[in-house]
Amino acid sequence: MSSYKDLDIYQISLSLFLKTHPFTLKLPKHELYELGNQLRRSSDSVNTNIVEGYGRRSYKNDFIKFLVYSEASCLETISHLEKIKVLYPYLSQESEDLLNNYNLLGGKIHSFKEYVRSKWRC
């Protein structure tokens, strides 16, 4: 692996962020800067923490710490999507699709974090 861009979790999280951002713009105007902003920020954080952690990969504990942050941001994103699904039924199918993908991503981040914890060599 020569770059964070080679990581499956990076590629998936970036793709999901690029789907999530325009999705938030479908929220009612009053939600764009409330729930929409929170969703955009947490979705971005999933991806950004993977990149920052990879940049600190020489320090195994730092790498793990940022993967924990990424996993937590993924859970936060899931929580925001669950709220949107209930509050805005016209977005429920898109919300559900994103929820399924973020749930899968969360599992992959967790698995990668455990791999780094047990097998990563600096």
Walk me through the topology.
Blueprint: H1 8-24, H2 35-55, H3 60-87, H4 92-119
Task: Give a quick rundown of the structure.
It comes from Algoriphagus machipongonensis. Helices cover 77% and strands 0% of the residues. It is an all-alpha fold.
Largest beta-sheet details: none
Name the assembly state. Answer: single chain
**Total discrete domains:** 1
Number of helices: 4
Unreliable spans are none
The beta-strand count equals 0
Structural class: mainly alpha
Q: What is the averaged pLDDT score?
A: 97
Under the CATH scheme, which architecture would be assigned? Up-down Bundle
- Gyration radius over CA: 15 Å
| Proportion of beta-strand residues | under 5%
CATH class: Mainly Alpha
CATH homologous superfamily designation: 23S rRNA-intervening sequence
Q: Tell me the CATH topology.
A: de novo design (two linked rop proteins)
Termini Cα gap: 13 Å
Relative helix content:
over 70%
The shape is: elongated
Helices and strands, in N-to-C order? HHHH
What structural keywords apply?
Four helix bundle protein, 122 residues, 0% strand, 23S_rRNA_IVS_sf, de novo design (two linked rop proteins), 23S_rRNA-intervening_sequence, 4 helices, 77% helix, mainly alpha
Protein architecture, described:
The chain has 122 residues and is mainly α. It has one domain (4-119): de novo design (two linked rop proteins) (Up-down Bundle), CATH 1.20.1440.60. The chain has 4 helices and no strands. The longest helix has 28 residues, at 60-87. The model has no long low-confidence stretch (mean pLDDT 97).
